[in-house]
Amino acid sequence: MEIAAVIFVIFLIAVAAVIFFVLKKAVKMAFRAAIVALILLIAVVGGVSLWWFGANGNSDKPPANTKKSR
């Protein structure tokens, strides 16, 4: 699950960069910075939650008992 968290953060960083450059001519700098900061905040919160809740998932569970057939 850690890999998913890292990929999620990297993806949203790329999305934030693309949005920053797409809005370069259309929107003022403060508004662009606010949008990018919001996307990066979502990336960090999502990545941390995936990392935290994904890592605690089923690492403590013992393997399931399987019966051997004859």
Helices, by number, come to: 2
- The fraction of residues assigned to DSSP E strands is under 5%
Low-pLDDT regions: none
- Secondary structural class: mainly alpha
The CA-CA distance between the termini, in Å, is: 37 Å
Listing every helix as H and every strand as E from the N terminus to the C terminus, the arrangement reads HH
Total E-strand runs: 0
Kindly provide the radius of gyration, computed on alpha-carbon positions and rounded to a whole number of angstroms. 20 Å
Main sheet? none
Average pLDDT works out at 80
Number of domains: 1
Shape: rod-shaped
Question: Share of helix among residues?
Answer: 55-70%
Question: What are the salient characteristics of this protein?
Answer:
70 residues; single chain; mainly alpha
